[in-house]
Amino acid sequence: QVRVVESGGGLVQAGGSLRLSCAASGRTSSRYFMGWFRQAPGKEREFVAANEWSGGRPDYGDSVKGRFTISRDSAKNTLYLQMNSLKPEDTAVYYCAAASGFLGGHNIRASWAYDTWGQGTQVTVSS
Fold this sequence. Notes:
mainly beta; 7-stranded mixed β-sheet; 4-stranded antiparallel β-sheet; 11 strands; globular
């Protein structure tokens, strides 16, 4: 069983940066893919970024492409989300998620494809 715990959220001014961390524990085979989603009040959960845990080409949501970077430290079993040039519309609860199976095509962006979720961390961007 894999468990993921997010940290690093907070309040930042527009144009600023934050780095989120996701500490993963459990079998590596249970986190084939790992990613970040976010959910703002009154909105559906939105795909942010994801990649295979073993590496490869990451995928990003259109609204964050060029501003956010997903990375991982295998030795620390930690996934990161570096967020730059933050905008007020980036305000949301950010969730880390892990998928135990291969995610092909657009499935990497589908929240239903991930079977382990963290509790979320709040990111608030002030204007």
